[in-house]
Amino acid sequence: MAPGVGWGASWSVALAAALALGGPGCTRRAAREPALHHIVIDRFRYQPAVLVVASGDTVEWMNQDLVPHTASASSRSWDSQSIAPGASWRTVVHRRAVETYGCLFHPNMKARLVVR
Amino acid sequence: MSRNLGNLTRSSATLLTLLLIAGVTSCGKKTETANTPPPPAAESTATTPPPAPAVSDANIAAIVVDADSIDIKNGKMARSASKNSAVKAFAAQMITDHTAVNKKATDLATKLGLTPEENDTSRQLVANAEATRAAIGAKQGAEFDKAYIDNEVAYHEAVLDMLDKTLIPNAQNPDLKSLLDSVKPAFEAHLDHAKKIQATLTK
Question: Touching check for B183 and chain A: CB below 8 Å?
Answer without folding.
Answer: yes
